[in-house]
Write a structure and sequence with these properties.
The complex is a heterodimer.
Chain A: H1 4-39, H2 43-48, H3 60-67, H4 71-102, H5 108-116, H6 123-137, H7 143-166, H8 171-179, H9 184-195, H10 197-213, H11 216-221, H12 230-240, H13 245-275
Chain B: H1 2-22, H2 36-64, E1 67-69, E2 75-77, H3 81-88, H4 91-123, H5 129-141, H6 144-154, H7 161-168, H8 185-210, H9 214-222, H10 227-238, H11 240-255, H12 259-264, H13 276-286, H14 293-324
Antiparallel strand pairs in B: 1-2
Helix pairs in contact in B: 4-8, 4-11, 5-8, 11-14, 13-14
The chains are: A mainly alpha, B mainly alpha.
Protein backbone atom coordinates (compact mmCIF):
# COMPACT_ATOMS: atom_id res chain seq x y z
CA UNK A 1 0.00 0.00 0.00
CA UNK A 2 3.05 2.25 0.25
CA UNK A 3 3.37 3.20 -3.40
CA UNK A 4 1.31 6.13 -4.65
CA UNK A 5 -0.21 4.04 -7.45
CA UNK A 6 -1.57 1.47 -5.03
CA UNK A 7 -3.09 4.04 -2.72
CA UNK A 8 -4.62 5.81 -5.72
CA UNK A 9 -6.15 2.49 -6.77
CA UNK A 10 -7.58 1.88 -3.32
CA UNK A 11 -9.11 5.35 -3.41
CA UNK A 12 -10.79 4.58 -6.71
CA UNK A 13 -12.11 1.32 -5.30
CA UNK A 14 -13.57 3.13 -2.38
CA UNK A 15 -15.30 5.82 -4.44
CA UNK A 16 -18.64 3.98 -4.74
CA UNK A 17 -18.59 3.42 -0.98
CA UNK A 18 -17.92 7.11 -0.31
CA UNK A 19 -20.66 8.14 -2.73
CA UNK A 20 -23.08 5.81 -0.96
CA UNK A 21 -22.07 7.24 2.42
CA UNK A 22 -22.76 10.75 1.19
CA UNK A 23 -26.08 9.73 -0.34
CA UNK A 24 -27.27 8.00 2.81
CA UNK A 25 -26.19 10.94 4.95
CA UNK A 26 -28.31 13.24 2.78
CA UNK A 27 -31.25 10.83 2.94
CA UNK A 28 -31.15 10.40 6.71
CA UNK A 29 -30.29 13.94 7.77
CA UNK A 30 -31.58 15.97 4.82
CA UNK A 31 -35.27 15.97 5.72
CA UNK A 32 -34.53 17.58 9.08
CA UNK A 33 -32.43 20.32 7.50
CA UNK A 34 -35.24 20.89 5.01
CA UNK A 35 -37.74 21.32 7.86
CA UNK A 36 -35.29 23.67 9.59
CA UNK A 37 -35.14 25.91 6.50
CA UNK A 38 -38.92 25.81 6.10
CA UNK A 39 -39.46 26.72 9.73
CA UNK A 40 -37.80 30.08 9.00
CA UNK A 41 -39.77 30.80 5.80
CA UNK A 42 -43.36 31.84 5.29
CA UNK A 43 -45.86 29.58 3.56
CA UNK A 44 -46.09 31.66 0.34
CA UNK A 45 -42.29 31.61 0.11
CA UNK A 46 -42.28 27.83 0.53
CA UNK A 47 -44.91 27.25 -2.13
CA UNK A 48 -43.00 29.50 -4.54
CA UNK A 49 -39.80 27.47 -4.11
CA UNK A 50 -40.02 24.54 -1.68
CA UNK A 51 -36.31 23.74 -1.66
CA UNK A 52 -34.77 27.21 -1.54
CA UNK A 53 -32.79 28.52 1.40
CA UNK A 54 -34.43 31.23 3.48
CA UNK A 55 -33.90 34.57 1.72
CA UNK A 56 -34.98 36.51 4.80
CA UNK A 57 -34.97 34.72 8.12
CA UNK A 58 -38.39 34.92 9.77
CA UNK A 59 -37.60 34.37 13.45
CA UNK A 60 -40.93 35.98 14.26
CA UNK A 61 -42.64 32.76 13.11
CA UNK A 62 -41.40 31.07 16.26
CA UNK A 63 -42.87 33.86 18.37
CA UNK A 64 -46.14 33.55 16.50
CA UNK A 65 -46.25 29.75 16.87
CA UNK A 66 -45.45 30.09 20.56
CA UNK A 67 -48.03 32.73 21.38
CA UNK A 68 -50.83 32.47 18.82
CA UNK A 69 -50.89 28.80 17.81
CA UNK A 70 -50.94 27.42 21.34
CA UNK A 71 -47.59 25.67 20.98
CA UNK A 72 -46.47 27.07 24.33
CA UNK A 73 -49.30 25.18 26.05
CA UNK A 74 -48.43 21.97 24.22
CA UNK A 75 -44.75 22.44 25.00
CA UNK A 76 -45.22 22.97 28.73
CA UNK A 77 -47.72 20.09 28.93
CA UNK A 78 -45.12 17.85 27.33
CA UNK A 79 -42.41 19.08 29.69
CA UNK A 80 -44.61 18.59 32.74
CA UNK A 81 -45.76 15.10 31.77
CA UNK A 82 -42.38 13.83 30.61
CA UNK A 83 -40.28 15.24 33.45
CA UNK A 84 -42.66 14.02 36.16
CA UNK A 85 -43.03 10.59 34.59
CA UNK A 86 -39.29 10.17 34.05
CA UNK A 87 -38.38 11.23 37.60
CA UNK A 88 -40.97 8.93 39.18
CA UNK A 89 -40.11 6.08 36.81
CA UNK A 90 -36.45 6.36 37.71
CA UNK A 91 -37.07 6.43 41.46
CA UNK A 92 -39.71 3.69 41.54
CA UNK A 93 -37.89 1.56 38.99
CA UNK A 94 -34.62 1.84 40.89
CA UNK A 95 -36.34 0.82 44.13
CA UNK A 96 -37.82 -2.30 42.56
CA UNK A 97 -34.60 -3.14 40.72
CA UNK A 98 -32.61 -2.74 43.94
CA UNK A 99 -34.94 -5.12 45.77
CA UNK A 100 -34.85 -7.71 43.02
CA UNK A 101 -31.09 -7.52 42.60
CA UNK A 102 -30.17 -7.41 46.30
CA UNK A 103 -32.64 -9.22 48.49
CA UNK A 104 -33.74 -12.82 48.58
CA UNK A 105 -37.35 -12.92 49.63
CA UNK A 106 -40.40 -15.05 49.19
CA UNK A 107 -42.18 -14.11 45.98
CA UNK A 108 -39.23 -12.34 44.36
CA UNK A 109 -39.47 -14.61 41.33
CA UNK A 110 -43.17 -13.87 40.98
CA UNK A 111 -42.59 -10.12 41.26
CA UNK A 112 -39.84 -10.25 38.65
CA UNK A 113 -41.93 -12.32 36.28
CA UNK A 114 -45.01 -10.13 36.56
CA UNK A 115 -43.09 -6.88 36.06
CA UNK A 116 -40.79 -8.03 33.27
CA UNK A 117 -43.65 -9.63 31.33
CA UNK A 118 -44.83 -6.05 30.87
CA UNK A 119 -42.14 -5.73 28.19
CA UNK A 120 -43.96 -8.02 25.79
CA UNK A 121 -47.45 -6.57 26.22
CA UNK A 122 -48.44 -4.42 23.25
CA UNK A 123 -50.05 -1.08 24.19
CA UNK A 124 -53.07 -2.03 22.09
CA UNK A 125 -53.91 -4.65 24.69
CA UNK A 126 -54.25 -2.07 27.46
CA UNK A 127 -55.40 1.04 25.69
CA UNK A 128 -59.13 0.27 25.35
CA UNK A 129 -59.65 -0.73 28.95
CA UNK A 130 -57.36 2.06 30.16
CA UNK A 131 -59.79 4.44 28.50
CA UNK A 132 -62.63 2.91 30.55
CA UNK A 133 -60.60 2.72 33.74
CA UNK A 134 -59.38 6.32 33.61
CA UNK A 135 -62.96 7.43 33.00
CA UNK A 136 -64.06 5.54 36.10
CA UNK A 137 -61.22 6.92 38.24
CA UNK A 138 -61.90 10.45 36.99
CA UNK A 139 -58.44 10.59 35.43
CA UNK A 140 -59.55 10.72 31.80
CA UNK A 141 -58.44 13.92 30.09
CA UNK A 142 -56.01 14.78 32.87
CA UNK A 143 -52.25 15.00 32.70
CA UNK A 144 -52.07 13.02 35.96
CA UNK A 145 -53.81 10.12 34.26
CA UNK A 146 -51.36 10.19 31.37
CA UNK A 147 -48.37 10.35 33.74
CA UNK A 148 -49.62 7.38 35.75
CA UNK A 149 -50.20 5.35 32.59
CA UNK A 150 -46.74 6.23 31.31
CA UNK A 151 -45.12 5.12 34.56
CA UNK A 152 -46.95 1.79 34.61
CA UNK A 153 -46.24 1.20 30.94
CA UNK A 154 -42.50 1.83 31.06
CA UNK A 155 -41.71 0.31 34.44
CA UNK A 156 -40.85 -3.07 32.90
CA UNK A 157 -38.07 -1.82 30.64
CA UNK A 158 -36.69 0.47 33.36
CA UNK A 159 -36.52 -2.33 35.92
CA UNK A 160 -35.01 -4.69 33.34
CA UNK A 161 -32.15 -2.34 32.51
CA UNK A 162 -31.49 -1.22 36.09
CA UNK A 163 -31.66 -4.69 37.61
CA UNK A 164 -29.14 -6.00 35.09
CA UNK A 165 -26.73 -3.30 36.18
CA UNK A 166 -27.43 -3.40 39.92
CA UNK A 167 -26.94 -7.17 40.02
CA UNK A 168 -23.33 -6.69 38.91
CA UNK A 169 -22.41 -4.48 41.86
CA UNK A 170 -20.24 -6.70 44.11
CA UNK A 171 -22.13 -8.10 47.08
CA UNK A 172 -19.10 -7.43 49.35
CA UNK A 173 -19.91 -3.73 49.26
CA UNK A 174 -23.34 -4.40 50.68
CA UNK A 175 -22.09 -6.89 53.27
CA UNK A 176 -19.54 -4.34 54.43
CA UNK A 177 -22.17 -1.60 54.57
CA UNK A 178 -24.43 -3.82 56.62
CA UNK A 179 -21.55 -4.55 59.01
CA UNK A 180 -21.05 -0.83 59.39
CA UNK A 181 -24.65 -0.56 60.44
CA UNK A 182 -26.16 1.06 57.33
CA UNK A 183 -29.92 0.75 57.20
CA UNK A 184 -31.62 -0.63 54.06
CA UNK A 185 -32.46 2.88 52.89
CA UNK A 186 -28.94 4.15 53.44
CA UNK A 187 -27.65 1.20 51.42
CA UNK A 188 -30.00 2.08 48.58
CA UNK A 189 -29.34 5.79 48.77
CA UNK A 190 -25.59 5.78 49.40
CA UNK A 191 -24.39 2.69 47.55
CA UNK A 192 -26.76 1.43 44.86
CA UNK A 193 -27.80 4.80 43.45
CA UNK A 194 -24.35 6.46 43.24
CA UNK A 195 -22.77 3.35 41.71
CA UNK A 196 -25.74 2.89 39.40
CA UNK A 197 -25.52 6.38 37.88
CA UNK A 198 -24.50 5.15 34.39
CA UNK A 199 -27.51 2.81 34.25
CA UNK A 200 -29.79 5.54 35.62
CA UNK A 201 -28.54 7.83 32.83
CA UNK A 202 -29.42 5.19 30.30
CA UNK A 203 -32.98 4.71 31.52
CA UNK A 204 -33.53 8.44 31.89
CA UNK A 205 -32.55 9.15 28.28
CA UNK A 206 -34.50 6.16 26.97
CA UNK A 207 -37.67 7.08 28.85
CA UNK A 208 -37.30 10.76 28.06
CA UNK A 209 -37.09 10.21 24.31
CA UNK A 210 -39.84 7.60 24.17
CA UNK A 211 -42.25 9.62 26.28
CA UNK A 212 -41.47 12.93 24.56
CA UNK A 213 -42.47 11.23 21.30
CA UNK A 214 -45.36 9.15 22.66
CA UNK A 215 -48.54 9.35 20.61
CA UNK A 216 -50.92 6.39 21.03
CA UNK A 217 -51.74 6.69 24.73
CA UNK A 218 -51.94 10.45 24.51
CA UNK A 219 -54.32 10.45 21.55
CA UNK A 220 -56.71 8.09 23.32
CA UNK A 221 -56.52 9.57 26.81
CA UNK A 222 -56.48 13.33 26.10
CA UNK A 223 -59.02 15.25 24.04
CA UNK A 224 -59.12 18.80 25.41
CA UNK A 225 -56.95 21.30 23.58
CA UNK A 226 -55.30 22.76 26.67
CA UNK A 227 -54.25 19.27 27.82
CA UNK A 228 -52.55 18.24 24.58
CA UNK A 229 -48.89 17.27 24.50
CA UNK A 230 -46.66 18.36 21.60
CA UNK A 231 -47.22 15.38 19.26
CA UNK A 232 -50.99 15.76 19.68
CA UNK A 233 -50.79 19.52 19.29
CA UNK A 234 -48.92 19.20 16.01
CA UNK A 235 -51.39 16.60 14.73
CA UNK A 236 -54.26 18.89 15.69
CA UNK A 237 -52.63 21.83 13.94
CA UNK A 238 -52.02 19.66 10.88
CA UNK A 239 -55.70 18.74 10.86
CA UNK A 240 -56.96 22.30 11.00
CA UNK A 241 -54.25 24.17 9.04
CA UNK A 242 -53.09 21.53 6.58
CA UNK A 243 -51.99 24.08 3.99
CA UNK A 244 -50.05 26.31 6.37
CA UNK A 245 -46.85 24.36 5.74
CA UNK A 246 -44.61 27.14 7.04
CA UNK A 247 -46.27 27.31 10.45
CA UNK A 248 -46.40 23.53 10.70
CA UNK A 249 -42.66 23.36 10.02
CA UNK A 250 -42.09 25.88 12.82
CA UNK A 251 -44.14 23.65 15.12
CA UNK A 252 -42.10 20.62 14.11
CA UNK A 253 -38.90 22.50 14.92
CA UNK A 254 -40.24 23.38 18.37
CA UNK A 255 -40.95 19.67 18.91
CA UNK A 256 -37.58 18.38 17.79
CA UNK A 257 -35.42 21.22 19.12
CA UNK A 258 -35.06 19.80 22.67
CA UNK A 259 -34.11 16.37 21.31
CA UNK A 260 -31.62 17.82 18.79
CA UNK A 261 -30.11 20.07 21.45
CA UNK A 262 -29.61 17.17 23.87
CA UNK A 263 -28.36 14.97 21.05
CA UNK A 264 -25.71 17.52 20.09
CA UNK A 265 -24.19 17.29 23.56
CA UNK A 266 -24.97 13.74 24.69
CA UNK A 267 -25.08 11.80 21.44
CA UNK A 268 -23.30 8.74 22.84
CA UNK A 269 -25.49 8.53 25.95
CA UNK A 270 -28.62 8.88 23.84
CA UNK A 271 -27.56 6.25 21.30
CA UNK A 272 -26.70 3.92 24.17
CA UNK A 273 -29.98 4.69 25.92
CA UNK A 274 -32.19 4.13 22.90
CA UNK A 275 -30.58 0.78 22.10
CA UNK A 276 -30.22 -0.42 25.69
CA UNK A 277 -33.21 -2.74 25.61
CA UNK A 278 -32.04 -4.53 22.47
CA UNK A 279 -28.45 -5.37 23.40
CA UNK A 280 -28.09 -8.44 25.55
CA UNK B 1 -29.46 -17.51 40.64
CA UNK B 2 -28.85 -21.14 41.48
CA UNK B 3 -25.27 -20.53 42.43
CA UNK B 4 -26.31 -17.52 44.48
CA UNK B 5 -28.82 -19.70 46.31
CA UNK B 6 -26.28 -22.28 47.39
CA UNK B 7 -23.80 -19.61 48.43
CA UNK B 8 -26.56 -18.08 50.42
CA UNK B 9 -27.37 -21.38 52.12
CA UNK B 10 -23.70 -21.86 52.92
CA UNK B 11 -23.44 -18.44 54.45
CA UNK B 12 -26.51 -19.08 56.54
CA UNK B 13 -25.12 -22.41 57.66
CA UNK B 14 -21.85 -20.81 58.69
CA UNK B 15 -23.44 -18.04 60.63
CA UNK B 16 -25.68 -20.49 62.39
CA UNK B 17 -22.71 -22.67 63.27
CA UNK B 18 -20.74 -19.77 64.64
CA UNK B 19 -23.76 -18.71 66.60
CA UNK B 20 -23.96 -22.17 68.15
CA UNK B 21 -20.28 -22.48 68.97
CA UNK B 22 -19.75 -19.01 70.29
CA UNK B 23 -23.23 -18.73 71.76
CA UNK B 24 -23.48 -15.19 70.42
CA UNK B 25 -26.99 -13.88 70.91
CA UNK B 26 -27.05 -11.74 67.73
CA UNK B 27 -26.62 -13.37 64.28
CA UNK B 28 -24.33 -11.61 61.81
CA UNK B 29 -26.17 -8.99 59.80
CA UNK B 30 -27.07 -10.40 56.39
CA UNK B 31 -27.21 -7.90 53.51
CA UNK B 32 -29.31 -10.36 51.47
CA UNK B 33 -32.22 -10.13 53.88
CA UNK B 34 -34.71 -7.37 54.42
CA UNK B 35 -37.70 -7.17 56.69
CA UNK B 36 -41.19 -7.27 55.23
CA UNK B 37 -41.82 -3.61 56.01
CA UNK B 38 -38.64 -2.57 54.18
CA UNK B 39 -39.60 -4.66 51.17
CA UNK B 40 -43.08 -3.23 51.23
CA UNK B 41 -41.80 0.34 51.19
CA UNK B 42 -39.47 -0.41 48.29
CA UNK B 43 -41.92 -2.41 46.20
CA UNK B 44 -45.42 -1.27 47.06
CA UNK B 45 -45.65 2.07 45.19
CA UNK B 46 -44.42 0.63 41.91
CA UNK B 47 -46.37 -2.59 42.25
CA UNK B 48 -49.62 -0.80 43.06
CA UNK B 49 -49.28 1.47 40.03
CA UNK B 50 -48.33 -1.49 37.90
CA UNK B 51 -51.25 -3.57 39.11
CA UNK B 52 -53.77 -0.77 38.63
CA UNK B 53 -52.64 0.52 35.24
CA UNK B 54 -51.05 -2.48 33.58
CA UNK B 55 -52.21 -5.81 34.99
CA UNK B 56 -55.79 -4.79 35.59
CA UNK B 57 -56.24 -3.23 32.10
CA UNK B 58 -54.87 -6.37 30.45
CA UNK B 59 -57.23 -8.62 32.41
CA UNK B 60 -60.08 -6.27 31.71
CA UNK B 61 -59.38 -6.33 27.97
CA UNK B 62 -59.58 -10.12 28.07
CA UNK B 63 -62.85 -9.80 30.00
CA UNK B 64 -64.18 -7.22 27.53
CA UNK B 65 -63.36 -9.41 24.57
CA UNK B 66 -66.19 -11.82 25.43
CA UNK B 67 -68.71 -9.04 26.10
CA UNK B 68 -70.33 -6.20 24.27
CA UNK B 69 -69.68 -2.97 26.12
CA UNK B 70 -72.16 -0.30 25.23
CA UNK B 71 -72.34 3.35 26.29
CA UNK B 72 -72.71 3.94 30.05
CA UNK B 73 -70.78 0.70 30.43
CA UNK B 74 -73.77 -1.56 29.74
CA UNK B 75 -72.23 -5.00 29.48
CA UNK B 76 -73.62 -8.12 27.92
CA UNK B 77 -71.88 -11.48 27.89
CA UNK B 78 -71.65 -12.83 24.35
CA UNK B 79 -69.11 -15.64 24.67
CA UNK B 80 -66.97 -16.08 21.61
CA UNK B 81 -69.40 -14.29 19.29
CA UNK B 82 -66.94 -11.39 18.81
CA UNK B 83 -64.20 -13.77 17.75
CA UNK B 84 -66.57 -15.66 15.51
CA UNK B 85 -67.71 -12.54 13.72
CA UNK B 86 -64.12 -11.37 13.43
CA UNK B 87 -62.88 -14.56 11.83
CA UNK B 88 -65.84 -15.32 9.61
CA UNK B 89 -67.46 -12.15 8.29
CA UNK B 90 -65.22 -9.16 8.96
CA UNK B 91 -63.58 -8.38 5.60
CA UNK B 92 -61.88 -5.21 6.82
CA UNK B 93 -60.18 -7.22 9.54
CA UNK B 94 -58.74 -9.67 7.01
CA UNK B 95 -57.61 -6.81 4.82
CA UNK B 96 -55.88 -5.32 7.86
CA UNK B 97 -54.29 -8.66 8.71
CA UNK B 98 -52.96 -8.95 5.16
CA UNK B 99 -51.52 -5.43 5.20
CA UNK B 100 -49.94 -5.90 8.62
CA UNK B 101 -48.42 -9.23 7.56
CA UNK B 102 -46.91 -7.72 4.41
CA UNK B 103 -45.64 -4.80 6.45
CA UNK B 104 -44.15 -6.99 9.18
CA UNK B 105 -42.41 -9.36 6.77
CA UNK B 106 -41.10 -6.98 4.09
CA UNK B 107 -40.14 -4.12 6.39
CA UNK B 108 -38.46 -6.46 8.88
CA UNK B 109 -36.29 -8.04 6.20
CA UNK B 110 -35.43 -4.65 4.71
CA UNK B 111 -34.68 -3.21 8.14
CA UNK B 112 -32.35 -6.01 9.21
CA UNK B 113 -30.51 -6.31 5.88
CA UNK B 114 -30.31 -2.53 5.43
CA UNK B 115 -29.09 -2.05 8.98
CA UNK B 116 -26.39 -4.65 8.40
CA UNK B 117 -25.40 -3.01 5.11
CA UNK B 118 -24.92 0.47 6.52
CA UNK B 119 -23.22 -0.94 9.61
CA UNK B 120 -20.71 -2.70 7.35
CA UNK B 121 -20.13 0.59 5.51
CA UNK B 122 -19.16 2.25 8.77
CA UNK B 123 -17.22 -0.81 9.91
CA UNK B 124 -14.88 -0.38 6.94
CA UNK B 125 -13.62 2.78 8.68
CA UNK B 126 -14.48 5.49 6.16
CA UNK B 127 -13.56 9.12 6.92
CA UNK B 128 -15.88 10.84 9.42
CA UNK B 129 -17.28 7.47 10.55
CA UNK B 130 -18.10 8.81 14.02
CA UNK B 131 -20.00 11.79 12.69
CA UNK B 132 -21.88 9.71 10.11
CA UNK B 133 -22.96 7.28 12.83
CA UNK B 134 -24.48 10.14 14.82
CA UNK B 135 -26.26 11.64 11.78
CA UNK B 136 -27.62 8.29 10.60
CA UNK B 137 -29.11 7.60 14.01
CA UNK B 138 -31.07 10.88 14.14
CA UNK B 139 -34.36 9.57 12.65
CA UNK B 140 -34.60 6.99 15.46
CA UNK B 141 -34.89 9.81 18.00
CA UNK B 142 -37.71 11.60 16.21
CA UNK B 143 -41.36 11.02 16.97
CA UNK B 144 -43.66 9.36 14.47
CA UNK B 145 -45.62 12.60 14.26
CA UNK B 146 -42.56 14.54 13.10
CA UNK B 147 -41.39 11.80 10.74
CA UNK B 148 -44.90 11.21 9.41
CA UNK B 149 -45.60 14.85 8.61
CA UNK B 150 -42.22 15.35 6.92
CA UNK B 151 -42.80 12.30 4.75
CA UNK B 152 -46.34 13.35 3.88
CA UNK B 153 -44.68 16.44 2.41
CA UNK B 154 -42.01 14.37 0.68
CA UNK B 155 -44.74 12.29 -0.98
CA UNK B 156 -46.85 15.33 -1.93
CA UNK B 157 -47.91 15.18 -5.56
CA UNK B 158 -47.26 18.80 -6.52
CA UNK B 159 -44.23 19.93 -4.59
CA UNK B 160 -43.03 16.80 -2.75
CA UNK B 161 -39.41 15.75 -2.91
CA UNK B 162 -40.13 12.29 -4.36
CA UNK B 163 -41.83 13.63 -7.50
CA UNK B 164 -39.43 16.57 -7.79
CA UNK B 165 -36.45 14.21 -7.88
CA UNK B 166 -38.18 11.94 -10.41
CA UNK B 167 -38.91 14.89 -12.69
CA UNK B 168 -35.38 16.17 -12.25
CA UNK B 169 -33.76 12.91 -13.36
CA UNK B 170 -36.16 12.62 -16.29
CA UNK B 171 -38.49 9.98 -14.89
CA UNK B 172 -41.45 12.33 -14.75
CA UNK B 173 -43.66 9.55 -16.07
CA UNK B 174 -43.23 7.73 -12.77
CA UNK B 175 -44.56 10.52 -10.61
CA UNK B 176 -47.38 9.43 -8.37
CA UNK B 177 -49.71 10.55 -5.72
CA UNK B 178 -47.74 8.21 -3.48
CA UNK B 179 -50.05 8.15 -0.48
CA UNK B 180 -53.23 8.73 -2.47
CA UNK B 181 -52.98 5.67 -4.71
CA UNK B 182 -54.02 2.37 -3.09
CA UNK B 183 -51.27 0.56 -5.01
CA UNK B 184 -48.40 2.63 -3.66
CA UNK B 185 -49.65 3.81 -0.26
CA UNK B 186 -48.61 0.80 1.81
CA UNK B 187 -45.17 0.66 0.19
CA UNK B 188 -44.66 4.38 0.77
CA UNK B 189 -45.50 4.13 4.46
CA UNK B 190 -43.20 1.13 4.69
CA UNK B 191 -40.29 3.09 3.18
CA UNK B 192 -40.78 5.78 5.82
CA UNK B 193 -40.86 3.23 8.62
CA UNK B 194 -37.70 1.53 7.35
CA UNK B 195 -36.01 4.92 7.00
CA UNK B 196 -36.82 5.73 10.62
CA UNK B 197 -35.49 2.47 12.10
CA UNK B 198 -32.44 1.63 9.94
CA UNK B 199 -30.14 3.60 12.23
CA UNK B 200 -31.28 1.58 15.24
CA UNK B 201 -30.32 -1.74 13.65
CA UNK B 202 -27.08 -0.18 12.42
CA UNK B 203 -26.00 0.64 15.98
CA UNK B 204 -26.74 -2.87 17.25
CA UNK B 205 -24.89 -4.43 14.30
CA UNK B 206 -21.93 -2.09 14.76
CA UNK B 207 -21.64 -3.15 18.39
CA UNK B 208 -21.80 -6.80 17.39
CA UNK B 209 -19.28 -6.30 14.56
CA UNK B 210 -16.72 -4.62 16.77
CA UNK B 211 -17.11 -7.49 19.26
CA UNK B 212 -16.13 -10.05 16.61
CA UNK B 213 -12.75 -11.65 17.32
CA UNK B 214 -10.19 -9.82 15.19
CA UNK B 215 -8.03 -12.93 14.71
CA UNK B 216 -10.69 -14.66 12.65
CA UNK B 217 -11.14 -11.71 10.30
CA UNK B 218 -7.37 -11.28 10.11
CA UNK B 219 -6.88 -14.94 9.28
CA UNK B 220 -9.45 -14.68 6.51
CA UNK B 221 -7.58 -11.73 5.05
CA UNK B 222 -4.32 -13.70 5.12
CA UNK B 223 -6.07 -16.47 3.20
CA UNK B 224 -6.93 -13.91 0.53
CA UNK B 225 -10.59 -14.24 1.26
CA UNK B 226 -12.62 -11.72 -0.77
CA UNK B 227 -14.87 -9.29 1.06
CA UNK B 228 -18.02 -11.00 -0.17
CA UNK B 229 -16.86 -14.45 0.90
CA UNK B 230 -15.79 -12.97 4.21
CA UNK B 231 -19.24 -11.49 4.66
CA UNK B 232 -21.17 -14.63 3.74
CA UNK B 233 -19.00 -17.28 5.36
CA UNK B 234 -17.63 -15.51 8.40
CA UNK B 235 -19.39 -12.31 9.39
CA UNK B 236 -23.03 -13.32 8.89
CA UNK B 237 -22.73 -16.71 10.67
CA UNK B 238 -20.96 -15.06 13.58
CA UNK B 239 -23.61 -12.33 13.77
CA UNK B 240 -26.38 -14.88 13.84
CA UNK B 241 -27.58 -14.24 17.42
CA UNK B 242 -27.77 -10.50 16.71
CA UNK B 243 -29.64 -11.07 13.46
CA UNK B 244 -32.16 -13.36 15.18
CA UNK B 245 -32.60 -10.91 18.04
CA UNK B 246 -33.17 -7.93 15.77
CA UNK B 247 -35.49 -9.86 13.46
CA UNK B 248 -37.76 -10.86 16.34
CA UNK B 249 -37.67 -7.37 17.87
CA UNK B 250 -38.36 -5.63 14.59
CA UNK B 251 -41.12 -8.10 13.69
CA UNK B 252 -42.96 -7.52 16.99
CA UNK B 253 -42.74 -3.76 16.52
CA UNK B 254 -44.13 -3.92 13.00
CA UNK B 255 -46.97 -6.26 13.91
CA UNK B 256 -48.19 -3.52 16.27
CA UNK B 257 -47.64 -0.57 13.94
CA UNK B 258 -50.08 2.25 14.59
CA UNK B 259 -48.66 5.75 14.87
CA UNK B 260 -47.04 6.18 11.49
CA UNK B 261 -49.98 4.76 9.53
CA UNK B 262 -52.43 6.79 11.54
CA UNK B 263 -50.54 10.02 10.90
CA UNK B 264 -49.71 9.48 7.22
CA UNK B 265 -52.83 7.86 5.77
CA UNK B 266 -55.26 7.05 8.58
CA UNK B 267 -55.58 3.58 7.07
CA UNK B 268 -56.75 4.82 3.67
CA UNK B 269 -57.14 5.06 0.73
CA UNK B 270 -59.65 2.22 0.42
CA UNK B 271 -58.20 0.32 3.41
CA UNK B 272 -54.96 -0.11 1.49
CA UNK B 273 -52.89 0.80 4.57
CA UNK B 274 -55.31 -0.35 7.26
CA UNK B 275 -53.40 -2.27 9.92
CA UNK B 276 -54.77 -4.31 12.78
CA UNK B 277 -53.94 -1.59 15.30
CA UNK B 278 -55.52 1.22 13.32
CA UNK B 279 -58.61 -0.94 12.87
CA UNK B 280 -58.80 -1.57 16.63
CA UNK B 281 -58.63 2.18 17.22
CA UNK B 282 -61.27 2.93 14.58
CA UNK B 283 -63.69 0.31 15.84
CA UNK B 284 -63.31 1.63 19.38
CA UNK B 285 -63.34 5.39 18.89
CA UNK B 286 -64.15 6.39 15.30
CA UNK B 287 -66.96 4.17 14.15
CA UNK B 288 -70.26 4.88 15.80
CA UNK B 289 -70.67 1.29 16.91
CA UNK B 290 -70.23 2.20 20.63
CA UNK B 291 -68.84 -1.17 21.52
CA UNK B 292 -65.51 -1.69 23.22
CA UNK B 293 -65.96 -5.46 23.31
CA UNK B 294 -65.38 -6.14 19.63
CA UNK B 295 -62.12 -4.15 19.31
CA UNK B 296 -60.93 -5.79 22.53
CA UNK B 297 -61.46 -9.16 20.88
CA UNK B 298 -59.28 -8.01 17.95
CA UNK B 299 -56.56 -6.84 20.35
CA UNK B 300 -56.63 -10.11 22.30
CA UNK B 301 -56.55 -12.27 19.18
CA UNK B 302 -53.71 -10.26 17.70
CA UNK B 303 -51.72 -10.41 20.93
CA UNK B 304 -52.04 -14.21 20.97
CA UNK B 305 -50.94 -14.42 17.33
CA UNK B 306 -47.89 -12.23 18.00
CA UNK B 307 -46.94 -14.36 21.01
CA UNK B 308 -47.25 -17.57 18.96
CA UNK B 309 -44.99 -16.09 16.28
CA UNK B 310 -42.41 -14.94 18.80
CA UNK B 311 -42.28 -18.36 20.46
CA UNK B 312 -42.10 -20.12 17.08
CA UNK B 313 -39.38 -17.84 15.78
CA UNK B 314 -37.17 -18.14 18.84
CA UNK B 315 -37.69 -21.93 18.93
CA UNK B 316 -36.94 -22.32 15.25
CA UNK B 317 -33.78 -20.27 15.30
CA UNK B 318 -32.56 -21.79 18.52
CA UNK B 319 -32.93 -25.33 17.21
CA UNK B 320 -30.98 -24.44 14.10
CA UNK B 321 -28.27 -23.10 16.36
CA UNK B 322 -28.13 -26.41 18.18
CA UNK B 323 -27.82 -28.35 14.93
CA UNK B 324 -24.97 -26.18 13.76
CA UNK B 325 -22.70 -26.62 16.71
Amino acid sequence: MGSPAASWLSHVRRTPLLLFLMLYTVISGGPFLWVATMSLRTTPEIFAAPYALPSRIHWEKFVEAWTKSNYSTYFWNSVLVVVTAVVLLTVLGAMVAHCLARYRFRGSRAVRFVILSGMVLPPQLMILSLFQILLEYGLYNTLTGLIVVYIAGHLAMTVYILEGFFAQIPQDLFDAARMDGYSDFEIFWRITLPIGVPALFTTVTLNFIILWNEFLYAVVLLTEDDKRTLPLGIMHFMGSHQLDVGMLATGLMITIAPIILLYAFFSETMIKGMTAGAVR
Amino acid sequence: MQAGGTLQAEREGKSRASWLTRLRPRPEPDARRAGPSTLAIFLAPALLLYAGFMVYPVLRTFYNSVHTIGPQNVQKFVGFANFHELLSTDLVFWKAVGNTAIFAIVATIADVLGGLLIALCLFSRPPFAKLLRVVWFTPVLMSYVVVGIIWVWIYDYDWGLANTVLRWIGLGAWEQSWLGDPHTALGSVMVTHIWKWLGFNMIIFLAALSALPGEVLGAAELDNCGWFAKLVYIIIPMLRPTIVNLTVLSFIGKMMIFDLVWIMTGGGPLWSTETVSTYVYKRAFDWNTFDLGYPSAIAVLWFIIIMVFVVLMTRLFRQRDKLEF
